[in-house]
Amino acid sequence: MIKYSWHERLPADTVAEVADLLAEAASYDAEAGFSTAVPDAPASGETSAHLVVSMPPKGERGSAQLDRLPDVGVVAYLRVDISDGVGDVQFVVRPLFRSLGVATLLFELLRDEDLGWASIPNLESIRGWAHGSHPAADRMSARFNGTVADAVFKTIRELGGSRPFVADKTNVEPVLVQEPGSVSAPVVAELHQVTIAPGDRRTLSRLATLFLEPEGGGRLLVGTDPDEASNAAACIAPLNAQGLKRDSLRTLIAQGLLIVQGRGARMAVLYVPPLDEDLLAVSRDLGFVHEQSDLRYVLAIERATSF
Ligand SMILES: CC(C)(COP(=O)(O)OP(=O)(O)OC[C@H]1O[C@@H](n2cnc3c(N)ncnc32)[C@H](O)[C@@H]1OP(=O)(O)O)[C@@H](O)C(=O)NCCC(=O)NCCS
After folding, report:
1. Host domain of residue 8
2. Atom 24 in ligand 1: residue holding the nearest Cα
């Protein structure tokens, strides 16, 4: 049986093991782009809690499948940042131990009135972004009566090589307005970036490099990494583009594509909220294709009612 313990701060003797678990998961999940957790990030809410899940030694796990796996201390890590009764969750299970019921068992145990979620004062619901919409996250949500409350599509467009982006008459020469050096990346959806996969975080972090503000209006952040090989992904993100005519949005993004392609990027990444019809239409028109759906799940916390 797994055991869990809550901590205000990650205990010193588990820091290295949690880091090891997350590094192993990041490498295992890199291609799929699944969510990660960031134990030492600043708190995004009023309070934070860290949950360390341990696995008994081999032979004491109550399952032949689990007993075949190596001895580990920490088998899963969960962090929750609480604000106004809502807990933003980051949760990762060690890859070797996945699909064996660890997350399901943990969430069952967390129904405990005294030790589980209900032990956190005023916590009414929890929510978390599943990047790459992990099938297990979906099944867990169904089992624990969760709902999908938000979504973001990651779309990509190959550049250069055999699929260059070619300017047409609407794609005038790009206008570089300023290179501010440091602009924090725009939020596609609330807290979407907090648990994004490390590879995607690197791509997003490049957004600080360039800032377009052409005649049609709107602004665009684009980012390439001058230190990376030419096949690096570039990220582009419209800012305050709501209300922009579709043609202007198209020109803005086309200019961004020309810039990053000119700088040697071989792929552009654009995050699109599915309800933003203009951005969705423009991204399709410019050759972006859907790469993955990121879904935000919400679960209500059950508490015993006292009469
Ligand atoms: C998502 C995650 C936490 C699930 O942990 P887990 O211990 O593997 O989950 P479980 O074994 O308890 O399985 C949960 C459910 O998913 C199903 N499942 C597990 N792995 C699956 C897979 N690869 N494909 C399809 N379904 C899967 C299980 O059958 C179970 O569903 P059921 O109860 O209806 O049968 C784990 O895969 C993980 O750490 N993923 C990377 C980080 C991440 O995506 N976090 C999500 C944050 S919301």
Report:
1. 3-123
2. 135
